[in-house]
Amino acid sequence: MQARRILKNLDYSLILAVALILLLGLVAISSATHVTGNDAQDAYRYVKMQLLWVFLGTAAAVTLLFWRYEELVRYYKILYVVNLVLLAAVLITGREALGAQRWIQIGPFSFQPSEFAKIIIIVTLAAFLAEREEQLSRFRDLLPVFAFIGVPMVLIMLQPDLGTSLVFVGITIGMLFMAGAKPLLLGGLVAGGLFTAIGWIWAHLNYGVWLPLKEYQLQRLIIFLDPWSDWQGAGYNMIQSQIAIGSGGLWGRGIYNGTQNQLNFLPEQHTDFIFSVLAEEMGFVGVIILLTLYFMLLYRGVQIAAQARDTFGTLIAIGIVSMLIFHIFVNIGMNIGIMPVTGLPLPYFSYGGSAMLADLIALGLLLNIWVRRQKIVF
Amino acid sequence: MPKKHKVSQRKIKTFITGIVLIFLILLVRLSSLQIFEAEHFRTLARENTLRLIPISAPRGEIFDRENRKIVGNRPVYMVQLINVGQTEDQLAPVISLLSRILDKPVAEIKDKIREGKFRPYEPVVIAKDVPLDVITRIEEHRAELPGVTIDIEPRRKYPYGKLLAHTLGYIQEINPEQLEQHRDEGYRLGDTYGQAGLENVYEKELRGEKGARQVEVDAYANPVRTLGVKEPVPGNNLHLTIDLDVQKAVEEALEKTIKTLQEGEHKQARAGAVVVEDVRSGAILAIASYPAYNPGMFTGRLTTGEVQKVLLSPDRPFINRAIQSTYPPGSTFKMVTAAAALEQDLDPTYRINCKGYYWWDRLYTDWTYPRGHGSLDVIEAIQKSCDVYFWIVGRMIGYESIARMATEFGLGQKTGIDLPGEAKGVVPNVEYKRMMIQKRLDQLTQQLNNIKEKYERLMKEATSPEEKESLEKKRQRELNSVQEEYERLEWELQWHDYDTLNMSIGQGYNLYTPLQIANYVSAVANGGMLYRPYLVEKITSPEGEVLKEFKPEPIRRVDISRDTIQFLQEGMRQVTRPGGTAYWVFHDFPVETAGKTGTAEIYGKDNHGWYVAYAPAEDPEVAVACIVEHGGHGSSAAAPVVKAALSAYFDLPVESETVAPTTE
């Protein structure tokens, strides 16, 4: 496909939405990091690094455009295996940080395979499901799908990275729905899963039933219900982020002027809690702008799924939309105290190389599907 | 050619609806936080960044009547460590450097950090009262000591050590009860609070007002900038009625006398009290209790060992014996009996022939002077302290009128001095005696029961009949002895004539504080005016402005005639003249004094020695009362202390010891 045609067919509203989100994100990161950084270091180090990731990610996305995404079907089994190998490698050689093993060191950079795993899983699951479209109405039809998704999910859980493995659940549900699984059955599974999880935790808290979680993980998971119960400990982050967001008010306290951010009361303010920086300094207005942009992005994503030339494309697009919406909901939900702290980044917004690369590759895939929507072979 | 592909619009719509729903959830919560609760969170954000660092106010100082500082303040440097998130590894070099500079073992510093529950941003005190040169060294190493801060705190200073300890009281960290009680007055945990004495009574005046520095801090509690400072207001100063010279003389004499007595025949003499009062106003010039403690020991954090040592000392140094302990007044009470009799129209010229004993329902012997004083009137009876005279007079007028006169002189009542914990004492009465005896009877009943139980058990264990028999005998013997005591005491539930006799010479159930006795002597000296004794003359602001002035406060004019008073005064004046019981102590004293000795009989131990006096005899200015517990005799144990007090008051040179004769 020629560059001219690609350019002509690109979804510019999607690109515009992402570009604006990136821009807002860079502003927020600059505000979040210009004091945090050591005096010796460049005050805009994080902004520059993020820009580098954006550049690399864009380059990757553009390169992807020249490929035919349909070709990926052929390699999906290899991709699946490569993914498992990468995830296993993290467990074996990975660098530990914040109590979890998520990084692999390559040269001066460390990267997080689980971020890319999400994309690979979307692509491979799309191929897997495309073969089974409209043959998913019974529960036992779903079992192979669960097995397919289960293996990488367990590997990620072992890191442990509960957040990312839950993203898999979100992605799978969205894609299964699109691929023709019964909504009632899916709803039942989700409700059943939730009920089991809550019941299990409840039993653990009240009767000491064994739980496959370390105490601190459980604490982090349930503290959002009442962060004040341990306001100096586990609840501190949640309380500070809510204070930041609430104190932002309608118009915000001004960029570089939020005390929660500037005086470091906000934890992880350039990654997990970057949304709170935006909310504190740009207020409800800034938040509405960001959410509108996200909605534009997701809406376009669904439209791309609807107009994809084949089921594979539709499923990839829906997988990506599911992944994004899950990240957005869980990350903002954690910032505003209605979701547990899981460490999922806010797409195109949080500081972080692997996530940015992965998300931009996802964008590239969306655009790829869009430019090839016409059902004519060029 | 790929197969024909069509996506269900229904699914797409469902998907969009799902997304919209999720966004709605987020928006509802966000608008609640940012629109409806914004004010609340704005406040929380502000509170996050604002810290009020309290600046303690120097406590008011205490001066004597001539403006000599008795209690002051000095700045004390504290070294603290703040947890700003250091790891163990980062702390280790800081601790070892601190240990070298402060000359404290590393383990001790680590203990303090552990005890202080090293919570984020809360300082842990590593060392208090650190000398300035050590502080300078810490400042020199500032860069190597992250988290170490220096704080200055005013601390109590007692330039005279133990002097006036009981009256001054001491300060300590406010305890939970006091905190609860005074929460509205702005006390916080860790504040100091006057725990005893004047420090307690005048807490409100002395404490001052804390200041504060408002600073903006970051999340690591590092001050970013100072927003404002409210300077502390120092507490107000107390100016006491105390005369340091007299106080010093009294305490030294009391200690010296007691030590001398201990070395001599009176090993049990270990404690005593003195009160020196201005008879014209009730102002206290000196007030002492021995043994004393050092109030300075409370300002630092005490080791439990030190506290235990003082608290558990058998001499109970914390008791302010001048106002908290009650004693039988002995013969110092005889002016009360004399006054009661004279007011009942006893002819002052009426003479009684003392043969050294008195026969009433049984024989009473004056053991201190068994050969008899011969014929005496009321003045001579006081001069020679004749028990027989007062027995007869006392029995004639009855115990009620003696009790009424004692009460009239303020005995058995709190004087109302501005000190906490004053004891009331007891004027003997039927009810009180019954109560005391009943208490003893209850103890005996308990004892009887114990004996019965003990033998019941032993009898059960006994095997042979012989053993049982011998046990039964023992049991009877023990029971009988207690039973006898019980029956004797039962009879004692009633008031008997000899109780009146005992009472009229100040023994028996009379129990008064040395302060009450001093105040009563003052009233005799000044012609019958009973004043409320007081310690604080005025309160001044830190700038020296007089805020409050205390004037003499009469309680009442004692209801007796001028004549009666004059007979009492003449009797007391004769005590220091030839033939008087204290002549040998005061014969060489350049100012004529009036006095009265007293000996409180203590069953099974050495008697308490009392001496009361006022001077000058002609135009009285000052009254003194002194008791030495188990000091034996008044004239030998207590009179020298009184003499030292009067010497100091009249600025006389301290003279050599007077050797005591044997009789009173």
Radius of gyration of chain B: 36 Å
Q: Outline of chain A, from the CA principal axes? A: globular
Please mark out the parts of chain B with pLDDT under 50 across 5 or more consecutive residues, or reply none.
Answer: 658-664
Helix-strand sequence of chain A? HHHHEEEHHHHHHHHHH
Q: At CATH's second level, what is the architecture of the domain at 272-332 and 512-649 in chain B? A: 3-Layer(aba) Sandwich
Q: What number of structural domains do the residues of chain A give?
A: 1
Based on Cα principal axes, name the global outline of chain B: elongated
N- to C-terminal separation of chain A?
A: 8 Å
Average pLDDT figure of chain A: 88
Provide a count of the helices of chain A: 14
CATH homologous superfamily title of the domain at 272-332 and 512-649 in chain B: DD-peptidase/beta-lactamase superfamily
**N-C termini distance of chain B:** 137 Å
SS strand fraction of chain A: under 5%
What percentage of amino acids of chain B are in beta strands? 15-25%
Q: What's the total number of strands of chain B? A: 23
Give the structural class of chain B.
Answer: alpha+beta
Quaternary state reads: heterodimer
